[in-house]
Amino acid sequence: MSEAKVMGSPSLSAAGGSVPLLRARGLRLSFGFTEALRGIHVDVHAGEVMAITGPSGSGKSTLLHVLAGVLVPDHGTVEYKQVRLTALDEAGRSRLRLGEFGFVFQYGQLLPDLSAVDNVTIPLLLAGTKRREALRRAEVWLERLGVAEHSGKLPAQLSGGQAQRVAVARALATEPAVLFADEPTGSLDSLAAENVMLALTEAARATGTTVVLITHDPRTAAYADRELIVRDGQITFGGPTG
After folding, report:
1. Is 226 within the bounds of a domain?
2. Angle at 124 between CA 132 and CA 174, to 5 degrees
3. What would be one Pfam family of this protein (predicted)?
């Protein structure tokens, strides 16, 4: 088994009274004349699975990238463990993302010339894990995600659902505190999407990993503990008020 920290997922009532793991206030970000975020407030609590939903172009993916320190807002603040991300330089945010965050994207973004197991080892090796240990941990995570029998296959030899579960294994292998998942089932059929979300949420809850999930699909959002709705760059449901 993995040496992952088992923290347990707090109840929503307990989480609501705790200090947020991620706290964003007054986020504003424009691209040219388009205001993508318009004064957004967000709290994300340790151990919860939170879905951010809304129509295409609503600003939800931009919000994820700001929360993860990929984009810097024009105005507002993001705090992670009470450290202000928005005050860090790019090198500082990169170190934080490598050490604390994991990412899953709509199309997995697996390296096409590497096997499934080698794809999962990449973030471990970048974090300084020795190759033998990285391979061992990669195999453990492929097993947990139900794709161990495909460990030697290239991404082109995998189905869409299998490839996405490999991508989830890669994201969780470093045991991140927060997993950011941007439309992780957007390219999958209904059955594959359900399998991926079940595997993702079970693995995250077993390790106490917090999940911030972007989706336009109500069936995918139903796997979350809590839902925020974003429209026109503002949260219209589920966010803090101040």
Report:
1. yes
2. 120
3. ABC_tran
